Amino acid sequence: MRRAYIKVWRDLATHFGRTVTVVMSIAVGVMALGMILSSNGLMQLQMGAAQLAARPAHALLFVGGALYDGVAEDVARVDGVVAADARVQRSIRWKPALDAEWQDADLVAVADFTAQRMDLVDLRTGSWPDARSIAVEQGHVAPFKVPAIGGTIYFDINDRSDAVTLSGTVRDNYRAKPPLGRNRPAFYVTLAGLKRITGSRTITQVGITVANFSEERAREVADAVSSKLEKQGIKVRFTEIQDPKEHWAQTMADGVGVVLTVMAVAALFLSVALVVNTINAILVQQVPQIGIMKTVGALRGQISSVYLAGVIVYGLLAVAVAVPLGALGGVLLSGYILRILNVPGSGYQLLPQIVAAQLATGLLVPLLAAIWPVLQGVGVSVREALSSYGVGQGRFGTRWLDQFLGSLRGLPRMVLLMLRNSVRRLERVALTQVVLVTAGAIFMMVLSTHYSFIETIAETWRAFGYDGYVVFEQPQLIPEVVDVLAARPGIGRVEMWLWQPAQTTLPKIIQADAAVKGPPAQMRGDRGGSVGGNSSGTGWRVGLRGVPLDTKMFKPKIVAGRGLQAGEQRSMLLNEKLAVEIGIGVGQNLELDLGNERKVTWHIVGLVSDITNNQETGYVVREELAREINSVGRATFAHITMSDQTAVGQRRLLADLSAFLKARGMSVSSTRTSAGDREDTNAQFGILTTVLLTMSFAMALVGAIGLSGTLSINVMERRREIGVMRAVGASSSDVAYVFVGEGLLLGITSWLLAMPLSVLGGPPFVASISSAISFSGRYHLDLAGFWWWLLIVVVLSIVASWLPARRATEISVKDSLSYE
Length: 820
Hints:
ten-stranded mixed β-sheet
């Protein structure tokens, strides 16, 4: 058999172009799989390491009201608390230069950065802040144009610009970069510095750790701490449980990773389809050689092993190319995502388990795919094999499609030849179409997913109906604010809303008789991340929004039940996603803890589609909520409409409005435009689209290689036919026209087939992506995606057919008509 295996190497070397095509087609699929698996593995390692290094608090209690110095030491004495820490996080306005516009920022204060106990902030460059300097999150320097270390920024303190020096940059494990994080920079200061800058040392957050962490244990100890604080008159707004081993973005990263892995596996199997095509072509081309080997005594198994050995060599070469490139792609892809998440990236490394998976798939999958065509090909009899001459082979002319194309008249000869040649090997064309159609359908579905998310976001903000909003530091008298704002030039309608954080443990679902009945929602959903939701009794955060009953702005998208009505007591519209997670539906009651041991039961009258506030919202009548939290006649948010619909004009109006309100003694915490919020949210999903399109282009590359391989095989099979064409006067441009035309015809046909497939597959694709990232996206077809893919497939078809067409034009009459 030694001579047989020499034949394998000779075939690989003689048909070098074919070898490269097959190796690259397998390599792209194996590389894509390795890139995604490597990226998933590196992200899990790096995010886990970052989480452990940050020493996260097991429970965070967000509090309101002045806390005394030494609160951490006092809380640490509560039974079950291992360590406690207190810090401040508040909004502040800043600008990088005196002539710049004011912007919102977060100011985080820690007593002593060199003695942090939990939720560690790491120093990256420069020095820790002292009483007269501040630090900035490293990922916020470039996006927000923060000056370099040693530079000066300005805070808005009592309508004056207070200059502060930047001492260094830090990394905060819980601060993602824009656009994933909040669209505002984070500055870090000591409590002494906070006192000097703002005149206040009010603590807003208390963190604790417990021994032998579990969600149940952390909740139990946090409840004890909460009771102690509330007995002292300190309001606990809500509590958040953090798993010390799970990064806050791990669930989202895992969901996206699963989707990308599925796409990578699809790319691998598409590349394997090209192996089947190539093996079939080789066997058809070498039928006479198979006949000769059988004549001299070779058995069917021996001949099969020769061709399967060739497949193994293809796989080994592909793995040799794919493993290092897949590892590099994994480092780059994980680095891109980790940088946005503000997690340190990893250097280049080969993960043993990923290399093993690539080796197994690169060898076994092509080999298994090739077994059937090889057994079929070597099963030809000696007589059939030796009677093959290589001209006009196949069954062309016997099928209805062949007869239809043969009946066409009035078209140029080269067009007719191109049309008829394109379907001569229908099985090969079908496999090539599977690859191209799948790649095109997924590309168009990805664009429709992006468009669906953008439209879902737009629908949400249209439902609110405002152009901008003002957040007050303290509840304000509603009539006074409305009258003052309505009298300002450029402002249309004004509505005052009341916001209140609340929390629910696993609810007592009380079946109540209600005028409105909805479908039962008894589904249980576990909620990963910081606030778990399962049978252990951990709870969900609910952001209550008190809406004016006579609102003209708010027009929610109700997916079950009905809206709020006058005359009802404690009725609520609940976010549909949150309702599924809790396991509650229309017609049921939900008990919420509003803080300070105030528990109120609300009746669910409807479910709404709403992506704001982490999809943790509940809408109630403003006056009802005000009575429950002792804020009758007052509200904290002013929603406004503006006559100026430009982004610059709206930002300027809000800045002027903030200064005006402060001058009247109404302290403003922050202001935002609806357009700005919508753009930030769109940008977040742009990251996901970029990652998905990366895999789509990998699949498109597989399709282009497959098309090029198909046309190259056609050129090899038609060498004698090309010689005949040249002998009767066909020019090089005529020959090239036939093959480029075939490529374009196959590409455009795949586009026509991919369009309806993408429409059918679009809704479940959007649903799967939405589920993976916990987002209530609704499917919207993106017609522009059709035309983008047509442009791409035309370009790919021309590029893929250029090299085979060029080879065809170089075949001389003498070479083409000679026998092997």
